[in-house]
Amino acid sequence: MFTEILGINDESVLKAKYLLLSGEIVAMPTETVYGLAAVATDKDAVKKIFEVKGRPIDNPLIAHVHKDFPLETLVYIDNDYVYELKRRFMPGPFTMVFRSKNVVCEEAVCGGDTLAVRIPSHEGCQKLLRAVNVPLVAPSANLSKHTSPVTAQHVYADLNGKIPLILDGGKCGGGIESTVLDVTGSVPRILRAGLITKEMIEDAVGKCEIAQHKDGDKVRSPGVKYRHYRPNCETALVNTAAEAVSLYEKEKAAGRTPYIMCDDEIAQSLTGYNVLNLGKTDKEIAFNLYDRLLEGEKKADIVIAVSFNREDGVYLGIMNRLRKSCG
Ligand code: AMP
Ligand code: MG
Fold first, then answer.
1. Ligand 2 centre and the CA of 206: distance in Å?
2. Domains of the chain (ranges, CATH numbers)
């Protein structure tokens, strides 16, 4: 199959709409990472997503809708705090899990009784969602377990020949996947951390829990149990710059090409070393994380990541991705 990459305009959106409504899957930009979209009620198209990605069949998909789409046609809104969360964080990098009305096909939710819904803020994505005017399920547009794509070129590297179209909306502004929040209970619960933080949710509605995924627990969000986000090279996760340097020297002495991935402050102290600089602030680090990992897999035999050793705010989501990709 020939894979076309098109910038977003009326014509390419019409083409994507036509492909989607005729059962094809199409890659689209969002403000978090690129998504691989299918019409959520089309079970054969949804199956294609799982096949093309090699995604485990028990890991449900998020339904994406435009900002005027009536959520109550898809899900039951059981708690009033949902309205305030929607008002504050939607459209945006924020997904809520509701009891499903089973409009979306069961392949998309892996036979479960809940549905995750997101309203992306990316303008090009909104344009497509409005054009199709049906929910699109869309996991990240990469091969399962690989690092998530934040440019159309990243998508192409993984899915060339497997899908007909990639809509190119530039580099994703967010950089890590949406926060996933279970809103079926009286207190909202974070299933996956992201750019909308526990602190922000508490500020909006008072309370917010973080789901603890311990061994033996019934897993509420299956995606969290898998190895994920890994670049196609060796990785290591260390606690300090000194540890990174010591491992770097050992790798170098063995004739290999190491790269150290770290924040800007550490990067500035490492002149003469191969460095993947993630930037200064939490937002910059999230924005750069997957891009640097995908740069790393091209250049390095091993990426040595330096931990941020903190879990407040956006760092909770960053550290979750860093442990899975490099730990
Ligand atoms: P991805 O689209 O690959 O970034 O993954 C979507 C994430 O949302 C995964 O961690 C899924 O397990 C989670 N998810 C999707 N639908 C549901 C649902 N109905 N209940 C709980 N978690 C969900
Ligand atoms: Mg993914």
1. 30
2. 4-210 (3.90.870.10), 234-326 (3.40.50.11030)
> pLDDT tens-digit profile of 256-301?
999 999 999 999 999 999 999 999 999 999 999 999 999 999 999 9
The tokens 């000194």 sit on which residue? 242
Query: In this predicted model, what pLDDT tens digit does every residue of 276-285 receive, in sequence order?
Result: 999 999 999 9
CB count within 10 Å of CB 44 equals 11
User: What pLDDT does 227 receive?
Assistant: 72
What are the pocket residues of ligand 1 if the criterion is a CB atom closer than 6 Å to any ligand atom?
Answer: 59-60, 62, 97, 109, 112, 114-116, 139-140, 177, 180, 191-192, 220-224
Specify whether the CB–CB gap between 31 and 90 falls below 8 A: no
| Closest listed residue to residue 179, CA positions, set 313, 40, 27 | 313
Say how far apart CA 207 and CA 94 lie, in whole Å.
17
Read off the pTM: 0.96
Residue 192 CA: nearest ligand 1 atom is 10
Ligand 1 pocket test, candidate residues 64, 117, 221, most atoms within 8 A of CB: 221
Write the residue with the smallest CA distance to atom 22 of ligand 1. Answer: 221
Protein residues placing their CB within 5 Å of the ion ligand 2: 140
The preferred substitution site among 107, 109, 145, 192 for testing ligand 1, maximizing ligand atoms within 8 Å of CB, is 192
